[in-house]
Amino acid sequence: MRMVSAKAPERTVRERRYAEGGTMSHRRNGRAPWLRGATNERRIRTSIFLPRLTVADGEWLAQTLPALQRKARPEPRAICVEDITLRYRSGRLGVADALDAASTLLEPFAAAGASVEGRNEWYITDDDEDDEELFSEERPATLRDEPEQDLLVSARVAIDAAAEDAGASALYWAVIALTMA
Questions:
Q1: Domain-by-domain residue ranges, the chain?
Q2: What is the dihedral of CA 76, 77, 83, 86, to 10 degrees?
Q3: pTM to 2 decimals?
Q4: What is the enclosing helix (H) or strand (E) of 58?
């Protein structure tokens, strides 16, 4: 049991500095904060650009990803599908149809646990516009070069996951397979 006296307790040097506003300091939560970030966790950190996704690629992903992942799901925000750009053939598709088709194409990523950029952030262009810099990776992605396609989608898949994350690894390997096609 602690005795309380009527006399105010003596302040420590640290308390006096805080009261006087003489020293600026930061509060630490725990001991040895430099040890917290020094784990030996192996991580996959990469960004893969997919310049020419088609409806067939979306169908392949919908069939393949569940078999690859089984019941494993990636950690939240470990896989992000971003910088989505779609090019559609304006004579055959309207803007709404192109957006719906692109959503269907990207749905397997979301179903597998990836974070997919919202539709309101996508860049949309029809085949009449010359925005080749949006698709400027190795192969040009124009619909003129792909007469059988009415829609091409490009996306960047950003991966920041623990190497032991089986769900993220399955998605990573599926994305790698898409780059080989």
A1: 44-180
A2: -10
A3: 0.69
A4: helix 55-69
